[in-house]
Amino acid sequence: MPAKPLKQRLEAPDENRMTDEQRAMRESVAQGPRKSLKLAGPLGIWMHAPTFGEMAQRLGGHCRFRTALSPRLSEFAIIVTARQWRAQYEWQAHAILAEKAGVKPKTISDIRAGRVPKSAPSDERAIHAFTTELYKTKRVSDRTYNRVVKIIGESATVELVGILGYYALVSMTLNTFNVRPAPDQPVPFREPAV
After folding, report:
1. Fewer beta carbons below 10 Å: N end or C end of the chain?
2. What is the CATH number of domain 71-176?
3. Cα 138–140–145 angle (5° rounding)?
């Protein structure tokens, strides 16, 4: 018997009832790199704590749009994180972006299934090893670290860790508040028993 779909715990605040701080956050999102008034996913949740939400969304804007990593590698790291956390909404949003950025469909399928993407390019495989090792052991070995630094450099490695941390925050937010993907889309991962 399939698990009962989880009910979302918080919705984005009603536009007509927003506080000044919520309106300021909404405007900041619209003026930032996202260029959108849509407050879906973690942004809608963070609107309930707009001071925190403003800081988080600014970090997210940098992590997603302004790091030294190429969009392909950044989106790849994001979907590996979404898989690690089984964050349904995050996966739905970023698997499409990863493919548009150049991540191969086979690689995306492997990541979704929890398999090592053996046919992925070497830079993606290195980031996959780094990311999964960091999430599993809470550390990164010298060998794994040196492999990534050799490919993307020290500065981009710092930013990679930032991307992973930010999207872990996103994943925790989405999972805690049961944020769902679009209702017309199947969930990418089996729902956990809670």
Report:
1. N
2. 1.20.1290.10
3. 155
Residue in this structure with the two tokens 């018997």, named with its chain if needed: 1
Residue 4's contacts (CB-CB under 8 Å, 6 or more residues apart) are 191
pLDDT tens, position by position, 125-177: 999 999 999 999 999 999 999 999 999 999 999 999 999 999 999 999 999 99
Burial (CB < 10 A; 0-12, 13-18, 19+), residue 79, is: buried
Here the tokens at position 118 are 């053996």
- Residue 165: count other Cβ atoms within 10 Å of its Cβ: 14
Q: Name the DSSP letter for residue 75.
A: H
Is 98:126 a contact under the CB 8 Å cutoff?
A: no
pTM, two decimal places: 0.93
